[in-house]
Amino acid sequence: MPDKQVQGAQVVSRVARLLRIVGRAPEAGAALGDIVQASGLTRPTVYRLLNSLAAEGLLDHHTQTGSWHLGPELYVLGSVAASRFAIEDLARPSLQRLADETGESAFLSIRRGDETVCLVRVEGSFPVRSFVLHEGVRFPLGIASAGLAIMAFLEAEEIDRLLDDGGARLQRFGPAHAPEQIRNNLAATRERGYTVNPGLILEGSWGMGAAVFDRQGRPAWALSLTGIEQRFRPDRQEFLGKLLLEEAHKLTQKLREQPHAGR
């Protein structure tokens, strides 16, 4: 019995891993080879699990391109669960105000494990935009403005654990995301209250973010703005940062008033 329980837990863990990997490419879908590489599982195992998930409607397989997409059953389950997680509805007024007052694109991201996931986007009026961030995109904590804003207010021990990743962030995102560089960005975020991402992921694409806290005072979400470098000059950063902090505070207060909102 214990062996069967371990095997069952491994299957659940693998299934969850595959769903997250496919979810990172909501529009184009994920190729089998990319899923195999990202999962660390063997190709036959991945292929078997993907087909099983597709049979249950949790994944879709595009026969012409060979790509895998999240399936309709996940949409149904997500719609049912949405009423328990009111964060998106609570955040929309803040996102709309940020977009209206700045002209930039405004986002809500949530912490899920060691990553942030973009949940909501509200476009601003400025015609030139950055497309690094959109709904469903995942980044490791410490990457992008939302991940930096959240990570900056974690306990020191947890930050140490996250940065002890064997060089994964450095290898994937480049020298600007070496542990010491990230620590410097975290320190600057704590000093200002908000984070500034000066094109660290894509040159010319800037972002700023502020953490939103749960009822226990833990950073669980972040509001952020993204746009082109010319819109985030030093003389404008203070204005943008002040707006982000104001809206992040408002959203934190709303969440504390509604104990079932959020996670």
From TrEMBL:
Query: Sorted alphabetically, which PROSITE patterns does this protein's record hold?
Result: HTH_ICLR, ICLR_ED
User: Where would I find the HTH iclR-type domain in this sequence?
Assistant: 9-72
Top-level taxon of origin:
Bacteria
SUPFAM superfamilies found in the cross-reference section: GAF domain-like, Winged helix' DNA-binding domain
This chain's protein is named IclR family transcriptional regulator
The UniProt keyword set, sorted, is:
DNA-binding, Transcription, Transcription regulation
Q: Which residues form the IclR-ED domain?
A: 73-257
Carries keyword Transcription regulation?
Answer: yes
